[in-house]
TrEMBL record:
Keywords: NAD, Nucleotide-binding, Oxidoreductase. The active site is at K82 (proton donor/acceptor). GO terms for biological process: amino acid metabolic process. Belongs to the Glu/Leu/Phe/Val dehydrogenases family. CDD domains: NAD_bind_Leu_Phe_Val_DH (cd01075). The lineage of its organism: Bacteria, Bacillati, Actinomycetota, Actinomycetes, Micromonosporales. InterPro entries: Aminoacid_DH-like_N_sf, Glu/Leu/Phe/Val/Trp_DH, Glu/Leu/Phe/Val/Trp_DH_C, Glu/Leu/Phe/Val/Trp_DH_dimer, Glu/Leu/Phe/Val_DH_AS, Glu/Phe/Leu/Val/Trp_DH_bac/arc, NAD(P)-bd_dom_sf. SUPFAM superfamilies: Aminoacid dehydrogenase-like, N-terminal domain, NAD(P)-binding Rossmann-fold domains. SMART domains: ELFV_dehydrog (SM00839). Transmembrane segments: none annotated. NAD(+) binds at G182, L183, G184, K185, V186, G187. This is Valine dehydrogenase (NAD+).
């Protein structure tokens, strides 16, 4: 997968892609900046043991593009970026590596702000911040927003409420059965919101610690062996909350839910899946729309974090989701296409203002 826009693929057309290496600490990182039309690029850093450099590059290109659309729909004056560190965080992560990475972020002079993602956590952001000011998602004791999964889950819940209203006429999951794939950072908080709302929850996770947490914290959750068992259960809503590519051809053909709303990024395994979902009568709320609560939370940190203000903004995902679902119906397109159009319109209209000269 190339960086330059030579074939029109979704992952191309980036403004800047930076490869970073520090041999002494073992750091191998890629920072992708898709767009700064709305402002500095903001997106988390993923620490993951990719099979190859090509896989790492493909992931950062997709993720950074998704962040541009996510930030645009969330109403933020921020562009889209993402970074990946290639390696096993359980083995490779160290203070030296994180600080080396921080210096590379600093070298971009504010074109990119980083935050947490898969494999990185709030304490890691505090370490990175010792070398750069362009980092969010820091701990509360350092004036940060803390765990961004809290408002990510809250936003997914709001998007799910809007989808429920669109599908069944009421903005609640009470009496519905929701299947959660992944009880990690976001899934566990989402489960709590759903149970409080009166939903029945079925879940699965590859991590035994997450399953143990569910048994202890919410014994009413029905745990199943794997994702295949989950998607073939009698679900009203399917919530992918693990890694990307959750909605592939096999999954969509087997899925029994009527609504898909989850916290994972890049849920569509390939272009065209959104059409297959629509053909099967499954309502899909675009992932970058509903999981924007986390980026709203860490973005609020840039102006001085206030949790209640950030939560209020994340609650707005309900209205944005409702608007996109209505737009999709009125224009006869999928919600994914409607969401893309709105995001692209905002990037174009606001980005155009950069042509107005300011001395």
């Amino acid at each position: 997968m190339g960086v330059f826009d030579t074939d029109g693929t979704d992952a191309s057309g980036h403004e800047q892609v930076v490869f970073c290496q520090d041999r002494q600490t073992g750091l191998k990182a890629i920072i992708g900046i898709y767009s700064t039309a709305l402002g500095p690029a903001l997106g988390g850093t993923r620490f993951y043991p990719y099979e190859s450099e090509a896989d790492a590059l493909a992931d950062v290109l997709k993720l950074s593009r998704g962040m541009a659309y996510k930030n645009a729909l969330a109403g933020l004056d921020l562009g889209g970026g993402k970074a990946v560190i290639w390696g096993d965080p359980a083995r490779a992560k160290s203070e030296g590596l994180l600080r080396a990475y921080g210096r590379f972020v600093e070298s971009l002079h504010g074109r990119y702000y980083t935050a947490c993602d898969v494999g990185t956590y709030v304490p890691d952001m505090d370490v990175i911040a010792r070398e750069t000011t362009y980092v969010t998602g820091r701990s509360l004791e350092h004036g940060g927003a803390g765990d961004s999964s809290i408002l990510t889950a809250w936003g997914v819940f709001q998007g799910m409420r809007a989808a429920a209203e669109h599908a069944w006429g009421r903005p609640t999951l009470a009496g519905r059965t929701v299947g959660i794939a992944g009880l990690g950072k976001v899934g566990k908080y989402l489960a709590g919101h759903l149970i409080e709302d009166g939903a029945a929850v079925i879940a699965t996770d590859v991590n035994e610690a997450a399953l143990s947490w569910a048994r202890t914290t919410y014994p009413q959750i029905e745990l199943v062996a794997d994702t295949q068992a989950l998607i073939t259960s009698d679900l009203d809503v399917y919530a992918p909350c693990a890694l990307g590519g959750a909605l592939d051809d096999d999954t969509v053909s087997a899925l029994r839910a009527k609504v898909v709303t989850g916290g994972a990024n890049n849920q569509l395994a390939h272009p065209g899946i959104e059409k297959t979902l629509a053909e099967r009568g499954i309502l899909y709320t675009p992932d970058y729309l509903v999981n924007a609560g986390g980026v709203i939370q860490v973005a609020d940190e840039i102006e001085g974090f206030n949790f209640e203000r950030a939560k209020l903004r994340a609650t707005g995902i309900f209205e944005t989701t409702r608007r996109i679902l209505q737009l999709a119906d009125s224009e006869g397109v999928s919600p994914a296409v409607a969401a893309d159009r709105l995001a692209e319109q905002r990037m174009a209209e606001v980005g155009r203002l950069r042509s107005i000269y300011l001395s």
